[in-house]
Amino acid sequence: MVSTDSGSAGTGDVVRLTAWVEGFVQGVGFRWWTRSRALELGLVGSARNLTDGRVAVVAEGDRAACEALLEALRGGHAPGAVRQVVEQWTSARGDLRGFVEG
Questions:
Q1: Which residues are bridge partners to 101 per DSSP?
Q2: Which residues pair with 90 in a beta bridge?
Q3: What is the pLDDT of residues 23-69, one digit of tens each?
Q4: Mean pLDDT estimate for the chain
């Protein structure tokens, strides 16, 4: 885990979560599933395939909602097979609209 945000873990903080998801996560509906979870949580951002086989997830919103998305990514209910999730927390930039698959 890489953490660059010194804010509290309580709700109300608006943050940006970047998560790199490793495993069998491409071609199995993983990005669609991630988008659905993020929208349910009221987050904005994206999920996109990387050339090395990982999926990069960027989400902005309430810290508690981002933590719930991170828990879902690691929770074992996503399509495919997640081996590892590396996370980075930063301040929200406010430059994202909707949640897209890329």
A1: 47
A2: 16
A3: 999 999 999 999 999 999 999 999 999 999 999 999 999 999 999 99
A4: 91
| 8-state DSSP, 95 | -
Q: Encoding tokens for residue 38?
A: 């993020």
Residue listed under structure tokens 């993020």: 38
For residue 88, give the amino acid letter. Answer: Q
What's the half-sphere exposure (Cβ side, CA atoms, 13 Å) at 4?
Answer: 9
Q: Which of 16, 31, 54, 63 is catalytic?
A: 31
Cβ within 8 Å of residue 73, ≥6 positions away: 19, 21, 34, 57, 82, 85
| Bridge partners (DSSP) listed for residue 56 | 20, 48
Q: Active site residue: 16, 35, 49, 93, which one?
A: 49
49 is known as an active-site residue: yes
